[in-house]
């Protein structure tokens, strides 16, 4: 083979070609680092833009919130006052809290009140119209559909006496409701009228309300009756001018029955006419940035700033390349050492120095472990070939000798001659069968046909099969089978496993000794034990008991020592069932082989 390779390569040993640059680890690392750097720069720019956008959005949201606060405060002032003469302190407080410049003018833009110096020019468009009788729902979410600020109560504002009387009644009703186990609270409106707030089912509220008389709180007071009479008169006049039937408006400022849109417009018009003398006149609201406040910095991408960004990005790329080349070189050097070592597998005891403690160092250590295991496996292979040759030579030599003797007329071909040759052939077949089992297990082709079986029945069968041999050897064979659950296993393979252990125990137990076959349940495992009172195994030999072709006494012959493969087969079959096999021994006293098999079936054993 070496000569053929030299012939194909012009007389020189074949050497692998240079690695293409696009497959080099260093080039890949460079490409990955450059990509990461570019992505980092792009992500940083994107993050800066997003941050700026978020800041602007937050600032805009704060501005809108401040505008809404200014509008709500001024609407509340207008609803409770008849003019704007005392609004200056309120404007000053709002300007201080919001940092805005606030100006109020009449609808023809004559100044009414200013939060600060009046030197600023007014914007072309007003921020809002402050009119409690025509509120903007976008700036005042709590306003009703009629557009009238609920804080504009006018003639419906209760005097102190009526307010005290209604408050006392509300507290009395609340006590009654709580006495019935109903949750209720008292709130007070802008006019000073208290109201009960109840939670729960509406039907139950109505029944409990009737018991406690809560509807008495809905009756208008003397002040409210006068105001309602005036309102109904205004509504009636409007409806009469339009040729519509009169309606009655109560404290809810809505007709008692469903009405048409013209009727509703009459009610809204009448309410505004009634409340107009009690609220401040409409004014225009102008809100602007305070004088002298700096403008928010923008995101300037001028030529100079663009050059700075490009310079920083180039610097990041250069640093990335330098670091990547340095790190990549340090990574590639031990990999090249590993590659050179892997190209010379025939050199014995080849090791790669482990100079780092990172992934490359771990790889070098793993390579050294692999080389050591390879050497160990090679030694085992050589020893196994030698053992196989030795084990096969003995029966083959015997068969050849007898056949040559028969051919030369030195041995008669009688029944004893044939029986002797058959015995040697059976021994040879036994070795070959054991080797085949181990080869199948090593290649992963060992097939198990598992089924539920009784450990007691299986062990009784194995004991019965070996009882005659034990009696011939003068060994007492006993069984001790406790309550063991059903086992899921291949019956033929398990009988072979236990049989090998039992045969080995009888072989190494002198006459008068005892071999005990036991079985018991241990949690989620089934334990099978084969104990003998034979010669025992030295502590130094215990780790090698399950090695192939190993015998404790190398001087034993085949007729007394076995093939040396039985215990190796035991380990392979036990592990194929998902179990373990161990051995303990006290030389001259007792040796115990223990099989531990899972009580629940292994998924690999289930039929598919």
From TrEMBL:
Domain HAMP: 329-379
Listed PROSITE patterns: HAMP, HIS_KIN
CC terms in the record's Gene Ontology section: plasma membrane
Pfam families per UniProt: HAMP, HATPase_c, HisKA
Subcellular location(s) per record: Cell membrane
Reactions that this protein is recorded to catalyse: ATP + protein L-histidine = ADP + protein N-phospho-L-histidine
GO MF assignments: phosphorelay sensor kinase activity
Chief location of this protein within or outside the cell: membrane
Enzyme class, broadest EC rank: transferase
Transmembrane segments: 25-49
Record flagged with keyword Manganese: no
EC number: 2.7.13.3
Official protein name in the record: histidine kinase
């Amino acid at each position: 083979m070496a000569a053929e390779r030299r012939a194909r390569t012009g007389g020189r040993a074949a050497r692998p070609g240079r690695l293409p640059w696009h497959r080099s680890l260093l080039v890949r690392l460079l490409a990955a680092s450059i990509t990461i750097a570019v992505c980092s720069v792009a992500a940083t720019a994107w993050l800066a833009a997003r941050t700026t956008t978020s800041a602007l959005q937050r600032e805009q949201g704060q501005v809108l919130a401040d505008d809404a606060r200014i509008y709500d405060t001024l609407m509340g002032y207008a609803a409770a006052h008849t003019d704007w003469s005392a609004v200056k302190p309120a404007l000053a407080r709002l300007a201080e809290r919001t940092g805005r410049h606030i100006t109020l003018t009449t609808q023809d833009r004559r100044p009414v009140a200013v939060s600060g110096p009046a030197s600023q020019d007014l914007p072309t468009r007003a921020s809002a119209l402050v009119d409690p009788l025509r509120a903007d729902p976008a700036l005042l979410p709590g306003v009703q559909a009629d557009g009238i600020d609920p804080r504009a109560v006018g003639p419906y504002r209760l005097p102190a006496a009526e307010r005290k009387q209604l408050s006392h009644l509300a507290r009395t009703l609340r006590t009654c409701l709580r006495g019935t186990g109903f949750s209720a609270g008292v709130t007070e409106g802008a006019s000073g009228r208290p109201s009960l707030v109840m939670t729960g089912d509406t039907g139950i509220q109505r029944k409990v309300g009737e018991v406690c008389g809560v509807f008495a709180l809905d009756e208008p007071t003397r002040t409210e009756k006068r105001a309602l009479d005036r309102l109904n008169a205004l509504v009636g006049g409007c409806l009469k001018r339009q040729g519509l039937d009169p309606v009655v408006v109560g404290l809810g400022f809505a007709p008692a029955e469903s009405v048409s849109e013209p009727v509703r417009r009459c009610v809204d018009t009448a309410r505004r006419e009634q409340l107009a003398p009690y609220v401040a006149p409409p004014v225009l609201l102008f809100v602007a940035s305070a004088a002298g406040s700096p403008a928010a910095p923008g995101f300037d991408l001028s030529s100079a700033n663009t050059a700075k960004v490009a310079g920083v990005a180039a610097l990041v790329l250069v640093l990335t390349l330098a670091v990547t080349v340095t790190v990549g070189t340090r990574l590639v050097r031990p990999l090249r050492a590993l590659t050179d070592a892997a190209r010379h597998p025939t050199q014995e005891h080849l090791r790669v120095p482990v100079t780092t403690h990172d992934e490359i160092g771990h790889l070098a250590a793993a390579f050294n472990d692999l080389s050591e295991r390879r050497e160990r496996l090679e030694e085992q292979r050589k020893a196994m070939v030698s053992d196989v040759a030795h084990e096969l030579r003995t029966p083959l030599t015997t068969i050849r000798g007898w056949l040559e003797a028969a051919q030369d007329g030195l041995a008669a071909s009688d029944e004893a001659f044939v029986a002797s040759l058959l015995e040697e052939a059976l021994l040879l077949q036994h070795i070959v069968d054991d080797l085949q089992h181990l080869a199948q297990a090593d290649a992963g082709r060992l097939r198990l046909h598992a089924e539920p079986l009784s450990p007691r029945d299986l062990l009784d069968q194995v004991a019965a099969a070996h009882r005659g041999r034990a009696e011939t050897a003068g060994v007492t064979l006993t069984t001790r089978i406790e309550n063991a659950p059903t086992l899921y296993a291949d019956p033929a393979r398990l009988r072979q496993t236990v049989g090998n252990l039992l045969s080995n125990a009888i072989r190494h137990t002198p006459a008068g000794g005892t071999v005990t076959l036991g079985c018991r349940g241990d949690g989620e495992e089934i334990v099978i034990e084969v104990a003998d009172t034979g010669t025992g195994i030295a502590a130094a030999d215990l780790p090698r008991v399950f090695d192939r072709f190993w015998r404790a006494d190398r001087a034993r012959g085949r007729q007394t020592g076995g093939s040396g493969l039985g215990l190796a087969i035991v380990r392979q079959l036990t592990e194929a069932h998902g179990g373990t096999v161990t051995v303990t021994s006290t030389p001259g006293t007792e040796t115990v082989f223990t099989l531990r098999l899972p009580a629940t079936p292994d998924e690999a054993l289930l039929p598919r």
